[in-house]
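Predict the holo structure. Ligand: D-gluconic acid.
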Amino acid sequence: MANSFSLEGKIALVTGASYGIGFGIASAFAAAGATIVFNDISQEAVDKGLANYKEAGIPAHGYVCDVTDEDAVNAMVAQIKEEVGIIDILVNNAGIIMRIPMCEMTAAQFRKVIDIDLNGPFIVSKAVIPGMIEKGHGKIINICSMMSELGRETVSAYAAAKGGLKMLTRNICAEYGQYNIQCNGIGPGYIATPQTAPLREKQEDGSQHPFDSFICARTPAGRWLNPDELGGPAVFLASDASNAVNGHILYVDGGILAYIGKQP
Ligand code: NAP
Ligand code: GCO
């Protein structure tokens, strides 16, 4: 049974993984034996990522690539095949959020979030699936969100993207399960990363940010989660242990979706 969780001999591409959730997942993959490949949008970010992996004792291959640029993604996947090998595991992690009330958001801003958070996973998945078919197996993990299930003020574009990503996950499952490709999602709860830093900033008087208090009241454990807490679930979905799991969104949320919230 232990071997079924091993990623020995597997090549994993984690998009946008210089830090944050992607780095946490890639670090867990490395501990399970995978070869780590990641991309980020600038050389500066890739260099920072390479330094982070080196500090963690993880040999990693970094590539500059914007996941919304189909030509660049196809070129990156071809370069990875030449320099590292055919990708066995893809984690569509790269993503952004814009917290703007919908009627104040421009169409261009809405499109940008959809482009990165939904079109990006489509483009990268489409680029890696042929190699997975060639190899006879593949694992795709899409990083969804609480907003794949719930709405909240100011995140209309993000929720629309993450809801779409849930259904893209199910559609890849439907179309490519026949090639022994499993496509699942991970729906993290509220994770302490740069993306959520603004929601946790101390107030001028030193008090907790209201949203910080809100999330702690909505999470049974009463705390934010850490990126490394996503590693185990991600290794499961990237390994042979989950070969019969397909089209599933695994919520790693500390119980938020099961909990009405701390009673007053
Ligand atoms: P983060 O700290 O903002 O990191 C996002 C990463 O994606 C950064 O490295 C960023 O690169 C990269 N990126 C952005 N646009 C890109 C593009 N067009 N092409 C390639 N890379 C790009 O975010 P995070 O909190 O780690 O979140 C990672 C994923 O988890 C996202 O999909 C997010 O929606 C999702 N998520 C986060 C939480 C949470 O609570 N943090 C919860 C649920 C889901 P740069 O630094 O160069 O911009
Ligand atoms: C927000 C947060 C969330 C998290 C995550 C929750 O503004 O509500 O950024 O969207 O990033 O997606 O699962």
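The chain is about 40% helix and 15% strand. Helices lie at 20-31, 43-55, 70-83, 107-135, 156-176, 210-218, 231-238.
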